[in-house]
Amino acid sequence: MNNRWILGPVVKVSAANILFTVNPNDIKTKIQNGIVQAVKGVNDYVYFRINARLIVIAKIYIVDDSSKPYIKDEPNSKFKDEYILSAYPIGEIKNGKYTAGVNNLPMVGQNTYYAGEEILKIIFNNETNDTAGLKIGCLTNNEFITPYLSGNKILSGHIAILGNTGSGKSTTAKVIFKQLSEDHKKLKDKTKFLIFDVHDDYKFLGDQSEGKYFNASEIGVGPKDFDIEDWESLLQPSEKTQKPILDLGLKLAIIRDDEKIIKLYFLIIRNLFTNGAMSAVLRYQITDEYLRSIYNLVPKAKVCEKSNVQEAWSKFNPQYGNTPEKDGQKNFFDNLKDLCDYQDESLREVLDEIDDNQKQRDFSISDLAWAVDLAIRIEESEGNNSIRAHTEGILTRLRDLETKYSENFFSPNKSIVNDIENNESKFIILQVSSFDDDLLKLFSTYLTRKILTKKKEEKDRDKLAPCYLIFDEAHRYMLQNGNINNIFDRVSREGRKFGTYLIVISQRPSELSTVVLSQIKTYFIHRIQNNIDLRFILENVPTITQLDVKRLPLMPIGTVLVSSENDYSYELKVNDRGIPKTSKSILPFLN
Question: How much is the pTM?
């Protein structure tokens, strides 16, 4: 700060604005100590000396020509050339150390000084001894200053990388992750970065020593690994009607035993005849269906008992669902009791036995669909004839899942959570480019919930290593839906305490969860031109000003606005040397 370049005097000061005048002759390009210095105007930095130990830093945002006659009342007088520049204060340097925020402001009449490289290096930590950080590019108006982004500062909170298609957001993300990967030895053991790779942009990270790439065919889960919260997130059951059916269905699907299932079939049949709430024809059809299932499940040794039931059932009229014989119905149930080894248990007692005594096993989506249908039948047999109309939607969604995903994603032989846990790589790339939006949402919410749960279960916080969940094209599945059980909202609020962080990459910020965006600590924002997105950013990003938002549509490709909590915003030109090219649009014309 020994080479002070005086620009001009301060003429007006407000809480958030400082005006000073400049003579054009005083801001011509000069060379000091072999360094070319030039005032470029907007986005330049200036400072004001408060005392011997304290200076205030400000950033220029308006330059105005204020040329006027030397003699006010004589229009033919020579003109006095003068510029008026507006700057907003951003921080202070005290005893050679920069801190964001301002407690002191200059007085009118004080000199304004140009902030050269010596000052800028202090502001942007160029001379720090801390090596655990990022340098992703230079200042847009000074290619010799590459701001240092403290790794511990940035990675101690959630991150968002936003921008229109083609603005450079994917390149910025790749630059960040490549630098972190190259510095992996500085990261804590068991630190993990999980990247949901929607466009196959990050495969190069999996090829490095600290990377592991999972193909889509390797990604999957066993339905049993889903807990009730996962199924509720997937199927969205209504609280009063559908959720109890889903709970019962999961019990029946996970804990199955032939003997218990036979008893359930028997009790459903008995209830259908006892309650009399169902039509005779439908009752006959259901009974006939369940009898065939019982025949297949009972031990082969029960040939006589099976024959007796078949004979008694043959005397029932399919049209009226009854038998003309006086004791025909009693005879049928007596024989059915013998076949099923029924011991006078109630339906609820059998369900309780299943819950308490049976061993869990793997199950498929088709098993769960069968179990939910059985749960509906149990309710119907107890007289609730309207239950199927209110719960059929769950069955429809389950069958749709079975059709779409049972062969590739839902598999008892796959467990991506265990695969990730058992892999020592710090960078895990998950190829999800072939996933549709439904599967992408299903998988991302499932994995996020599992990771947060496991982090919460870690009792020794000193051993807790951070996990970063990187969601590319996040607007496809991290939606603003008002669901109180939204796992992304929960992680955004609670994750920091358990070392679980979100890194959100999106071209449509207005479609993202406002809860998530409000909890972001550091933003990397590229060009955004959509008015809805611009308004959304202004209203929901705490660290962004109106000036920043006005600038966003004009930013060139590869330029990013960095805005961090308790800090100010500044623009960088991202250095993409050595970074694989992002996927390009398919063009119609020959080169």
Answer: 0.83
